[in-house]
């Protein structure tokens, strides 16, 4: 997801505090967090089905990102692989990504699209993208990416004003500020083509969607949880989409536009 | 998965024994088993994103199946929803299903395909399919289904002999005897079209793929586990496919034919 003031401050505070060293270490082990019944099962998937097939550039970007203090924001390797497969299955060519961070899912997307594929990628923070960009260039797919620094809503609003942009995207990946997902959705539902796909990331929000009211939650998890749960309810009743909420990564809700 | 002697005997024995009443009840609660960190999280997905959208015929078939003693073999509602979405995303028209049981995933498939869509469905046991067939007929989609009772391998072998059948399927769902998955794969890789999708079900096998050697496992779980793990290793290195193993249901491995 894109860096947000709340999340960034939270994580920075965590990495400097000594009070929860074990948890801080675990969060910094990129790829260890999952929604599954055990870490062993998650590792099994990674080691059996993901890592042996992970393209070199993605492996490199994942390892570079692992050293970054905000790495819990990155897309996991299993989700990166799933997205790449999905993009090929739907023959995607023109896509959008809201929330880039260092670019792991963006790289997976760029590798999956045909050579003349295009990705409009937006993030409020260019610095993190610059970490991944050299690797994306080395992979030979940077030419597919149109990166825009800044908030996504103004860009979407501009596109929505233009009738020709309606239905112009095959696929949109939203991995950004949870308190804006529904605002993005109101625009994306017209910008994605009929039969096209919007994927909302982190919709199971670390499993916190079912945490009891008195459960100890990190501040930013608790802060955004209400927005995530509201999003899930709204997507469930939106007649313009058909959905599937799958426990890949931190929970992805796939939404196919019906009309 | 299709009924197998080992699994059926095991389940029958379980339902008559008093030694593990709690576990037997849990298995009979269709939809409660999952690979997720908690049952509460799984229920959240079902209640938020699945049940409100589940088509009436599928709900009815699920409820009828829940009363059947072998109901742990059924496809879960979240997986049924995911498959339906996937089929629409890939514009599937000509599909195959190996392993039908009462027909929940078959019904989901039939509802997702266009009116002239076709499904070749095979199961060694017609009796279970007959439980679901009236509901499938009432849903108005039975005309898409060509059901064949008997083992699938001979049917596949016959099709493979015919060059015209090569690359003739958009999608194949394999949810049957785990000790034959690799045998199915050797044939399906030629029968599915280039760019088409084979989905293997139960590839995380109740999480038992990471159970320690001395863990108490049900007999049929232990029996088939080696086959499942061998399958996973084989799919991981098969250059003719691109894969993604996702923790939906009991684990589904999606395989897109590359060449």
UniProtKB/TrEMBL annotation, chain A:
It catalyses: (E)-caffeoyl-CoA + S-adenosyl-L-methionine = (E)-feruloyl-CoA + S-adenosyl-L-homocysteine + H(+). Keywords: Lignin biosynthesis, Metal-binding, Methyltransferase, S-adenosyl-L-methionine, Transferase. It is an enzyme of class 2 (transferase). Pathway: Aromatic compound metabolism; phenylpropanoid biosynthesis. The keyword 4Fe-4S does not apply. GO terms for biological process: lignin biosynthetic process; methylation. InterPro entries: Cation-dep_OMT (IPR050362), SAM-dependent_MTases_sf (IPR029063), SAM_O-MeTrfase (IPR002935). It comes from the Eukaryota. The keyword Methyltransferase applies. One of its GO terms (molecular function) is metal ion binding. Belongs to the class I-like SAM-binding methyltransferase superfamily. Cation-dependent O-methyltransferase family. This is caffeoyl-CoA O-methyltransferase.
UniProtKB/TrEMBL annotation, chain B:
PROSITE patterns: SAM_OMT_I. The keyword Transferase applies. Keywords: Lignin biosynthesis, Metal-binding, Methyltransferase, S-adenosyl-L-methionine, Transferase. GO terms for molecular function: caffeoyl-CoA O-methyltransferase activity; metal ion binding. It comes from the Eukaryota. Pathway: Aromatic compound metabolism; phenylpropanoid biosynthesis. Pfam families: Methyltransf_3. InterPro entries: Cation-dep_OMT, SAM-dependent_MTases_sf, SAM_O-MeTrfase. Its EC number is 2.1.1.104. It catalyses: (E)-caffeoyl-CoA + S-adenosyl-L-methionine = (E)-feruloyl-CoA + S-adenosyl-L-homocysteine + H(+). GO terms for biological process: lignin biosynthetic process; methylation. The keyword Methyltransferase applies. Belongs to the class I-like SAM-binding methyltransferase superfamily. Cation-dependent O-methyltransferase family. This is caffeoyl-CoA O-methyltransferase. It comes from Pinus pinaster.
């Amino acid at each position: 997801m894109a860096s947000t003031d709340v999340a960034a401050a939270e994580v920075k505070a965590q990495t400097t505090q000594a009070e929860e060293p074990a948890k801080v270490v675990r969060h910094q082990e990129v790829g260890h967090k999952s929604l599954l019944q055990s870490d062993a099962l998650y590792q099994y998937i990674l080691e059996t089905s993901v890592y042996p097939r992970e393209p070199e550039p993605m492996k490199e970007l994942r390892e570079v990102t692992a050293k970054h203090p905000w790495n819990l924001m990155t897309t996991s390797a299993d989700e990166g692989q799933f997205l790449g497969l999905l993009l090929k299955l739907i023959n995607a060519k023109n896509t959008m990504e809201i929330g880039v961070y260092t670019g792991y899912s963006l790289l997976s997307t760029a590798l999956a699209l045909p050579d003349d594929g295009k990705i409009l990628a937006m993030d409020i923070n260019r610095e993190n993208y610059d970490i991944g960009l050299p690797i994306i260039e080395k992979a030979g797919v940077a030419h597919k990416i149109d990166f825009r620094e800044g908030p996504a809503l103004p860009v979407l609003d501009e596109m929505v004003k233009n009738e020709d942009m309606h239905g112009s995207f095959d696929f949109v990946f939203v991995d950004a500020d949870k308190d804006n997902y529904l605002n993005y959705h109101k625009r994306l539902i017209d910008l994605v083509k009929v039969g096209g796909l919007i994927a909302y990331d982190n919709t199971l929000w670390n499993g916190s969607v079912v945490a009891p009211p008195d459960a100890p939650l990190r501040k930013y998890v608790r802060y955004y949880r209400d927005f995530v749960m509201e999003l899930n309810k709204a997507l469930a009743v939106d007649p313009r989409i058909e959905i599937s909420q799958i426990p890949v990564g931190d929970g992805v809700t796939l939404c196919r536009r019906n009309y």
